[in-house]
Amino acid sequence: MTNQQGGVPQQGGMPAPPKSMAENKFQGDHYTIKQKLASLGNKYYIYTGLKPTRKDKEIGFVHQKLLKLKEDIRIYHDSTMNYEIMRIKQEQILDISGSYQVIDSQTNELIGILKRKGLKSMFKDEWIIMNKNRQEIGLIKEQGGFTWFLRRFILKWLPYVYHIEMSGQKLATIKEKALKLADTYFLDISADTQKFLDKRLAIAGLIMMDIGEHE
User: Fold this and answer.
1) How far is CA 158 from CA 34, 116, 153, in A?
2) Can you state the percent helix, strand and coil of the chain, rounding each to 5?
3) What is the pLDDT, as a whole number, of residue 106?
4) Domain architecture of the chain: domains with CATH
5) Which residues fall within 8 angstroms of residue 81, CB to CB, at 6 or more apart?
6) Residue 163, Cβ neighbours under 10 Å: how many?
7) 44 and 33 in contact (C-beta within 8 Å)?
8) Angle at the Cα of 103 (from 85 to 126), degrees rounded to 5?
9) Mean pLDDT of all residues in 89-95
10) Most confident stretch, 1-15, 172-186, 194-208
11) Using CA atoms, how far apart are residues 151 and 155, in angstroms rounded to an integer?
């Protein structure tokens, strides 16, 4: 398996050094992503760790632009929105299996593509992760046997759980916080010991799944 963060690992098995601010920011294995309450459009704070406190400053801020024919989501250095580090752009209008390019705003590099599995995702959410050459490299899959049915149609307060898989191997887990005012997710990528998964794609995938649930 090749290293999706920086291509082929350097000698000694170490990944290539970060090339941009976004790549440098998202080097850790644990993140909390929390939706901002009472805002026009979807906005999220990104924190490191699984138990951020009020004293912790966000390491990223997500803003979904309104009244766009195609989804246009920007990720900034922080909530001042002075410096854009990533963007997520829908490829086509009126596409039930929406494809979204994840782009590093500093280098203009296409990091990869996220594609929702159309009709299947209307019941149990599933997304395809592709590299910049449009080759499938992984999946984001909603978990739960009968629980997903209850969560989708009856008990909407039940928290979501997702796995990110590559080559059939679980590399990351996304868990929604139960009984919360604002949508809050915990992202754990510690299972990816070989650093195959680009963490920018994992964060973008989490954001798109929550936005998709609101549409």
Assistant:
1) 17, 22, 11
2) 15, 35, 50
3) 94
4) 24-214 (3.20.90)
5) 61, 63, 74
6) 16
7) yes
8) 115
9) 80
10) 194-208
11) 5
